[in-house]
């Protein structure tokens, strides 16, 4: 199964990707997570990406496409993958199409998760992520049992640098202008499935699985 999750920041792409990993036994490829790791490690990619990420802007396409090309070579990608936060521009989508053509394969589905902007701001302002295992929490909606500590592994929870209201608004503006055109792009290719992203994460997951049933 080769999937793309598309949706505004905070629409729940990461949350749903983590549930899909279990269901389909395929890896999540989150360009955001890869970039944050590169920033943490202080690599040249991380140093370049940080300036864009801190402003809520997109990292240049060429850097992202190279990163994806490398990641797709890993053995865990043989059975498929869940792209989370990639592609994010038409240029990235076209590059992905070429890469997949080169491998004589194609996407099974692109899931568009729709959430109103005000809800996204509430979600991102309260998001907390585990430093050790990447598990996601929300201070109001899905709080950890012990404040600041991951329920799953006991790791420390942190708030992302770009989860402040000004940067969130900028990320939303970037989504509207640069990423939302992908909806029309993938509709034309007959692979788009739209899933409402409000309500309980488990119900959204059920809706995604139902949408994917025809693609298995
Ligand atoms: P990235 O890390 O991809 O961030 P994003 O797209 O802004 O998405 P988020 O991770 O913020 O949200 P999400 O949809 O995964 O939601 P989540 O599940 O966490 O990118 C960060 C930056 O990296 C970009 O700004 C850019 O600079 C750069 N970048 C990355 N990819 C790039 C690319 N391809 N090209 C160029 N630049 C790139 O959920 C959010 C919160 O809501 C959590 O607290 C969660 O617990 C909660 N929640 C989830 N579902 C629900 C629900 N149903 N109800 C209530 N709360 C919920």
Rg (C-alpha, Å): 17 Å
Order of helices and strands: EHEHHHEHEHEEEHHEH
Oligomer: single chain
Query: Tally the helices: what do you get?
Result: 9
| Ligand roster | BIS(adenosine)-5'-pentaphosphate
Strand count, sense and barrel status of the largest sheet are: 5 strands, parallel
- Strand pairing plus helix content: what structural class? alpha/beta
Summary?
The chain is of the alpha/beta class and 216 residues long. It has a domain at 2-27 and 74-116 and 173-213: P-loop containing nucleotide triphosphate hydrolases (Rossmann fold). It has helices at 13-24, 31-41, 44-54, 61-71, 90-102, 117-125, 165-179, 181-188, 201-213; strands at residues 2-6, 28-30, 81-84, 109-114, 127-130, 136-138, 157-158, 192-196.
Describe the fold and architecture.
The protein has nine helices and eight strands. α1 (13-24) crosses α9 (201-213). The strands form two sheets. It has a five-stranded parallel beta sheet with strand order 2-3-1-4-8, sandwiched between helices. The chain is of the alpha/beta class and 216 residues long. 48% of the residues lie in helices and 15% in strands. The chain has a domain at 2-27 and 74-116 and 173-213: P-loop containing nucleotide triphosphate hydrolases (Rossmann fold, 3-Layer(aba) Sandwich). Bound molecules: BIS(adenosine)-5'-pentaphosphate. The site of BIS(adenosine)-5'-pentaphosphate has 34 residues, from α1, α2, α3, α6 and β6.
Task: Quickly list its features.
alpha/beta, binds BIS(adenosine)-5'-pentaphosphate, three-stranded antiparallel β-sheet, Rossmann fold
């Amino acid at each position: 199964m080769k999937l793309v999750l598309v949706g505004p920041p905070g629409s729940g792409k990461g949350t749903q990707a983590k549930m899909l990993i279990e269901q389909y036994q395929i890896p999540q490829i989150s360009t955001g997570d890869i970039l944050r790791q590169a920033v943490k490690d202080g690599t040249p990619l991380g140093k370049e990406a940080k300036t864009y990420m801190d402003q809520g802007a997109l990292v240049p396409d060429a850097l992202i496409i190279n990163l994806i090309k490398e990641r797709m070579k890993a053995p865990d990608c043989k059975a498929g993958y869940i792209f989370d936060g990639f592609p994010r521009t038409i240029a990235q989508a076209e590059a992905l199409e070429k890469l997949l053509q080169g491998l004589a394969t194609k996407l099974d589905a692109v899931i568009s998760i729709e959430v109103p902007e005000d809800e996204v701001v509430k979600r991102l302002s309260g998001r907390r992520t585990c430093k050790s295992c990447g598990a996601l929490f929300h201070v109001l909606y899905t709080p950890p049992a012990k404040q600041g500590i991951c329920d799953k592994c006991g790791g420390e929870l942190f708030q992302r640098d770009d989860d402040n209201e000004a940067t969130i608004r900028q990320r939303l503006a970037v989504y509207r202008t640069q990423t939302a055109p992908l909806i029309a792009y993938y509709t034309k290719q007959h692979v788009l499935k739209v899933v409402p992203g409000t309500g309980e994460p488990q119900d959204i997951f059920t809706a995604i699985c139902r949408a994917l049933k025809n693609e298995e």
